[in-house]
Amino acid sequence: MSESGELDYRIQSPEVAHRFEQLRARPVILGVQNLSKVFGTHAALNFISFDVRRREFLSVLGASGCGKSTLIRIVAGLETQTSGQILLDGKPVAGPGPDRGMVFQGYTLFPWLTVKRNVMFGLRMSGKSAFEAESEAREWIALVGLSKFENAYPHELSGGMKQRVAIARALANRPRILLMDEPFGALDAQTRAQMQGYLLEIWRNVDVTILFITHDLDEAVYLSDRILVLGANPSRVQEVIENPVPRPRSREQFTSPEFLATYRRISELIHPPNTEETERIQIPRMTMAGDDVE
Amino acid sequence: MLLGVASFLIPVLVWCIVSYVPFVWHPLVKITEPGGVSYFKPDTLVERKVFVAENAKMVEAGLPIAAGVPANPIFLPAPDEVAVSLYKAFTTPPRRSGEPWLHESLWHSIQIIFWGFLWSSIFGVPIGILCGVFGVFSKLTEPVVDFTRYMPAPAFGALAVAILGIYDAPKIAIIFIGTFFQQVLVIANTTRKLDTSLIEAAQTLGARRPQLLFRVVLPGIIVDLYNDMRILLGWAWTYLIVAEYIGASSGITYFINQQAKYRIYDNVFAAIILIGIIGFTTDRILAVLGNQFFPWQKNAKPSWIRRWKLSRKEAVA
């Protein structure tokens, strides 16, 4: 217990502690070593290092502009680092490849392909026959619950459905790691909550390791095993938090002491108390009505 | 739809008012009864001022006055006259043997446009796409293309005749020059507008260079490319008249000039309107076909090709 009488986020129940012990025993899938990225004179990333283990769900959280998108784009091979290394299964990787599937924030389904053909795209690129690709694609579409829409075009789908197809499309390639760059950022709150549920369900049933970028504290605590908090200016790893909220997760846990303690800790890291005070703007009073007006 | 019809009706209505309402414009008088004026003959057109002055003289001299009705100049035929000649222009044989019929003239013009636009597209589309995809290629070609496109295509007319003779080749060349340079720039721009995140997504799905070009860039820009081509085809039409003046005048331009020489202005109007009708109809047909070819567009109407494909799948299942 901390001095204010609240639960400390570092205290783990025996089950959670056991889970993390098991997790640490698993092989490292993605290794990020001393990764730096410099734009001109501005250091966007400053010697970032962390590991993601098999079947782990790791979230990278940070305020906007802390370089978390740059980080995941470098891991995906869409941008090059200034220094440092990305290891996948211990081997350095450069450039984009199907071993690192990516789900983007914007909708990146190919608008000229139907849902099924979108999911088939990567399978066809890897040289599978149309027949094989089609039957595999059907399974993945069924997994995200969109079998009815396999012949629909992306513009006929809602935002949430599009992201489900994007997840199916990335998973169909059987990537070593699934990279998700604020995938639910463009969705409305209700759809986002639903999608988080879907994602947990998919992650429980499919052997996949996830690196998840978000700026939403609730989302990070709700979904992840560990949460990597990035600080801004210069961007560096502030803390890697082992999430004490037990699995399986549900939305009721949002008010559990572990959840709140973790939330509070991340919040402290991202918004140090003194900066908020200085950024408060002065609004002149522009109404004659008193505060008691009905 | 209703507004579309109205957009045609309004100018026609103005034309009708000017033609049929006697006190609107009508600066001339068409003589029906020459009276005492020695040089007036039935059906001649005189200015209203002259008509009034001559009649005043007749009244002074005690001679019978001339009579007439307000009329418009010969170069503004009434809609009904043009409508009749639209039909008659096709059925009337040419005045002199060896001159082409109207439909032959039109067909000749359409062929010039077709070949000019085809040659332009064969070179312009791939170069435009390459410019849009590869920065190096764009920097190498676009400045000179941008420079050349400011030179008016007709300026190359004399040169084209010197090199290609006086028949169809220089005309096709003018259409080519007029279209090609714009085409490269327009298509390069369209290609550049492709959402780069689609290319990135394809890369993370394992697509390599040639696959990116043929499986992502091309399908990604095809709708805009198609619409660009529609606009550029209209562009090609605007160069037609100039092109047909070059060397031996031919096609619809020759027809218009001959009719103007004979002072049959109804036919001139009919020919100009025909160009409009052909251009507009082609564009509408292309628009409908576009809807069928690209069913993934947001506002695409249900395509019968897709419906047929889906129904076939259902039949199989």
Descriptors:
heterodimer, A: 294 residues, alpha/beta, Rossmann fold, six-stranded mixed β-sheet, four-stranded antiparallel β-sheet, 9 helices, 10 strands, 35% helix, B: 317 residues, mainly alpha, MetI-like fold, 2 domains, three-stranded antiparallel β-sheet, 71% helix, 4% strand
Could you provide a short overview of the structure?
Chain A is of the alpha/beta class and 294 residues long.
Strand arrangement within the widest β-sheet of chain A reads 6-7-8-3-9-10
What's the CATH architecture of the largest domain in chain B?
Orthogonal Bundle
**C-alpha geometry of chain A:** globular
Report the mean per-residue pLDDT of chain B as an integer.
Answer: 88
Instruction: Tell me the Rg of chain A in angstroms.
Output: 21 Å
The span between the termini of chain A is 44 Å
Order of helices and strands of chain A: HEEEHEEEHHHEHEHEEHH
What is the mean predicted local confidence, pLDDT of chain A? 90
Q: Compute the separation of the termini of chain B in Å.
A: 40 Å
The count of DSSP E runs of length 2 or more, i.e. the number of strands of chain B, is 3
Question: Strand tally of chain A, please?
Answer: 10
Instruction: Summarize the helix and strand pattern of chain B as letters.
Output: HEEHEHHHHHHHHHHH
